[in-house]
Automatic annotation (TrEMBL):
Keyword field contains Metal-binding: no
Organism: Mesorhizobium erdmanii
Gene3D superfamilies assigned to the protein according to its UniProt record, in alphabetical order: 2.40.160.20
Subcellular location: Cell outer membrane
Signal peptide as annotated in the record: 1-20
One Pfam match: OMP_b-brl
Occurrences of domain Outer membrane protein beta-barrel (ranges): 9-211
Main location, first listed in the record: membrane
Name by which UniProt lists this protein: Porin family protein
Keyword set, alphabetical order: Cell outer membrane, Membrane, Signal
Amino acid sequence: MFKIFYASVALVALTAPADAQNVDWTGYYAGAEIGAGFSHPGFSGGNVVGGSDFNDTAFVGGVFVGHDWQSGQFVYGGVASFDFLGFHSQTAEDPIFGGKTNSYTYDLDWVASARARAGLLASDQLLLYGTAGVAVTRIKTSSDLFIVGADTVNKTRVGGAFGAGFEYAFAPKWSFKTEYVEYLFDKVEVANSIDFKPRFGTLNFGISYRF
C-alpha cells in the first residue's frame, strides 16, 4: 500500500508542469474518494484463532469536506470525511473438543473522521501533508460459544486517525489527492475475556472542488 502511495507522489512530482499556475489554497472544498481498505484487527481469548484470521481487504469510498489556510509555503486546515467500508463479516472457528467449536464473526460497515491536516507546498500546485484526528465507526461482532451459547455485539467506537497524503491542483478550482489513513479504536468485548481491537487503514484517491 505504501509503495503505491510513494509511487503516486513521485509520478505527480515528475509530471507537474514547469509553468505551474499560482494556486490559492485558502478556502472551503468538498469532494469524493474511492480506494482500498485494509482491516487488521487484534483478537484475544481464542485457543487457536488470532487477529490475522479476521484480516480483510475491501473497496472503500465516500465523501469529504474541509477548509484550508495558506501562509506562504505552509498550508493548514481541517477536513471531515465519511467512508463506506466493504469489509464483509469475517468468521473464524476455534476447535474445543470432540468436534465442538467456538466461532466468532467481525464486521465493519463505515467510518467517519474529523481531522486536522498541515503540510508544505513542494510547488504552487503540489501539497504534501500529514493528518491526524478523531474517528467514529460501527463494529459488529458475534460469538457462538459451545458452553455459553450465541451472543451479538453492535458497538459504536470513538478512536484515532492519522496518516499522510499529497494533493495536486490540476486546475484553479480542482485538485486530486492520494491519502493513506490508519484508524484504531478501543477494544470491543464479545464475551467474557474475548475481545477485538479494531484497526484498519484506507488508501484513497479523491477529487475535490475548491469554492
